[in-house]
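Example for tutorial group B:
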């Protein structure tokens, strides 16, 4: 949606055009989920004079809901008073809003507040100290209309108009329906217009929408309110409210589970073991079962924890859980006086030590090792997670952006909405199989290069464009065996959220021999993280060359 430019430059109403696009999108795809008030808004908004449409769009795209009249002057809108009239008549704005003391302080400047409260507070207090003084003084706990606040002070000297947008709940609902989340806002249009973000074009059938029934939207918004209360550390009755929700939509259900998990972690940190268990036990979020085990362990319920842990190990939810259980179970068995099972054989990892001068230029240890190892016939790149993910993203681009149901809802998505869902790969099995088959017939390099050229700059959840230049791409495709790439890509697809990270820091190439090695670098005091250990074990088990380089800083000669 590039911003159109005419003879006089860019369209000054670009934001209005974008807002109208969003409203039309909602009307087309969600018409059956709108109530009478929402349909009336769409109808009435379309009939407004253009300046009124533009001013409301401006206000909804700014942080509200309170606005000073002297901040509503825009050249392309003209007289704000004339633009405000129809909005006030419809009741979408209030010219005499009720304001709490905090809201009043957010609207007024320090000098204005000092005049308003000149008779009840000492002079020359800072804004923060004045607010604290008024709170201590009392008498200002209840919201009051703007005109009543003015009546307390020198009203004739203020000359300030304050307005409240009264349709923020409707605007939030529309934003949720358009984006499918509340993380994004209308600035996405602006960033796309300016070319800062560029998105892959995906086909959107009329049925492509985030929500299928109105109840799912209502549930999402209730969960958002609970999330906000949790952020304010007011979780006293959040659990009961969460347990009362039973979302039919799997995606909304995962949001509920995530909030349950976060609440459990907060209670666990406070050592509220019963409260934490009450959150974890009904929670299906990844990791909740392990946290249940850790809480049982903290409570001394080792026998109960061991029984649950052994059942979990028989059917682990992920590699991560399996790894954690293999540490937990021996510990529980020892405390219970039970014999230990034969430990699994540890992966034999190639490890070597480097003693290097400490860098004086602030370079990280990975860059120091890269520069130390690099040679004319053996280039070394610091890639960490970027190279293998990028090769995967470029080869499998059409599968990743396939418009399957529940994946794409609007033109500003960085990737499919179900990217981290367990069923992500299965929903696109044929498409991924076709992409990975190119590694078998040798056509993968041409596809990767073509997508590197044709998709350059488009946002992808796997491709960090700044980390992949043509030189690295060429040497990687020359040296990395397709069999190894297929092994990596298959593992990423098994658990995108977990396995897209933890890859080794460096890759060392020997182009003349079409050979390479992955190198994980560990500086002094650093240790291998769990996801790194899993990747190292996987690579080792599949004959992929992987090494761990331990670095110590050489002491300068006395």
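The residue assignment follows.
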């Amino acid at each position: 949606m590039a911003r159109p430019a005419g003879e006089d430059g860019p369209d000054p109403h670009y934001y209005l055009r974008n807002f109208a696009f969003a409203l039309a999108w909602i009307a087309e795809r969600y018409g059956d989920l709108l109530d009478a008030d929402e349909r009336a808004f769409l109808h009435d908004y379309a009939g407004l004079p253009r300046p009124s449409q533009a001013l409301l769009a401006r206000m909804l795209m700014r942080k509200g809901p309170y606005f000073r009249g002297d901040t509503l002057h825009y050249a392309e809108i003209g007289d704000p008073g004339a633009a405000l009239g129809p909005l006030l008549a419809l009741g979408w704005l209030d010219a005499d809003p009720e304001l709490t003391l905090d809201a009043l302080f957010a609207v007024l400047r320090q000098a204005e507040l000092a005049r308003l409260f000149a008779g009840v507070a000492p002079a020359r207090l800072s804004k923060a100290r004045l607010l604290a003084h008024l709170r201590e003084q009392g008498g200002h706990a209840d919201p009051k209309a703007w005109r009543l606040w003015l009546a307390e002070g020198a009203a004739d000297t203020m000359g300030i108009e304050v307005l409240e947008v009264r349709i923020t709940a409707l605007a939030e609902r529309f934003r949720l329906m358009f984006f499918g989340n509340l993380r994004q806002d209308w600035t996405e249009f602006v960033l796309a217009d300016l070319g800062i973000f560029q998105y892959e074009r995906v086909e959107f059938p009329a049925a492509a929408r985030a929500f299928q029934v109105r109840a799912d939207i209502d549930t999402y918004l209730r969960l958002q309110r609970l999330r906000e209360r949790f952020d304010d550390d007011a979780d006293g009755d959040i659990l009961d409210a969460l347990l009362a929700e039973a979302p039919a939509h799997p995606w909304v259900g995962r949001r509920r589970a995530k909030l349950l998990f976060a609440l459990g972690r907060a209670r666990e940190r406070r050592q509220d073991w019963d409260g934490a268990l009450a959150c974890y036990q009904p929670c299906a979020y990844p990791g909740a079962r392990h946290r249940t085990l850790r809480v049982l362990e903290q409570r001394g319920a080792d026998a109960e924890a061991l029984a649950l842990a052994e059942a979990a190990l028989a059917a682990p939810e992920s590699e991560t859980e399996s790894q954690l259980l293999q540490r937990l179970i021996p510990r529980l068995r020892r405390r219970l006086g039970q014999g230990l099972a034969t430990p699994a054989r540890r992966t034999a990892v190639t490890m070597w030590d480097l003693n290097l001068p400490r860098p004086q230029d602030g370079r990280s240890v990975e860059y120091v090792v890269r520069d130390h190892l690099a040679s004319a016939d053996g280039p070394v790149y610091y890639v960490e997670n970027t190279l293998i993910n990028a090769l995967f993203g470029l080869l499998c681009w059409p599968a990743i952006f396939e418009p399957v149901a529940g994946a794409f809802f609007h033109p500003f998505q960085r990737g499919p909405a179900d990217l981290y869902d367990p069923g992500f790969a299965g929903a696109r099995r044929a498409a991924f199989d076709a992409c990975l088959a190119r590694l078998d017939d040798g056509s993968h390099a041409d596809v990767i290069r073509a997508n590197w050229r044709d998709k350059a700059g488009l946002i992808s959840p796997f491709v960090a464009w700044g980390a992949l230049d043509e030189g690295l791409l060429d040497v990687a495709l020359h040296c990395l065996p397709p069999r190894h790439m297929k092994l990596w890509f298959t593992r990423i697809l098994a658990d995108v959220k977990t396995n897209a990270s933890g890859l080794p820091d460096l890759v060392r190439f020997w182009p003349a021999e079409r050979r390479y090695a992955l190198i994980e670098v560990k500086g002094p005091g650093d240790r291998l993280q769990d996801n790194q250990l899993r990747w190292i074990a996987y690579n080792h088990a599949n004959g992929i060359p992987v090494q761990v380089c331990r670095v110590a800083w050489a002491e300068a000669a006395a």
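Confidence is low (pLDDT under 50) at residues 1-8. Compare this with the pattern of hydrophobic and polar residues in the output above.
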